[in-house]
Amino acid sequence: MNDASFNESFEQFAEILFADLHAKQPMNITNAYVKQYYGSKYLYIHLIFETGLGARDSENKEQTIEMVISYDRFYQVPVLHFRVDDKVDYASQYTAIDIHPILQAPYVVVHACETENMMSPTNLHGVEYLKLWFALQMTMVFPQIELRGRQSAETISGRSN
């Protein structure tokens, strides 16, 4: 996916994300927006979970996740940065701590280096590429969060005949 394709598809992807983002625990999207910075769009989304996300939250209290989706011009792929409860101590084999290149704040970043290899077997482009990419990112770092596709009224009514 190149920068132009990312930017062309991003607004529609963000709308789908806002509408179809689901979690196993009660969740609210409290802040979400798309902005442009030096010609490249990025998405900021803030989620609040009424109960904890699992093992990381032994007290089962409210938790927040901040996610920023942007485009990495070096790797030429989308990239996910996130924080849990304003912390960046979410270590895994898929992540590292980095300063977000646009927001200039510390975030955990999902490694972008293998994204192209992971996505290259697909022939998807634009929004469909971004949806699959996001689903794979969530599987690696937040399996409790998923993007559920909606069925159109025509598809549902067509199946009932």
Automatic annotation (TrEMBL):
Organism: Metschnikowia aff. pulcherrima
Annotated keywords: Autophagy, Protein transport, Transport, Ubl conjugation pathway
Keyword Transport belongs to the record: yes
Keyword Metal-binding: no
Protein name: Autophagocytosis associated protein, active-site domain
One Pfam short name: Autophagy_act_C
Superkingdom to which the source organism belongs: Eukaryota
GO biological process, one term: protein transport
Gene Ontology molecular function: ubiquitin-like protein transferase activity
UniProt-listed InterPro entries: Atg3/Atg10
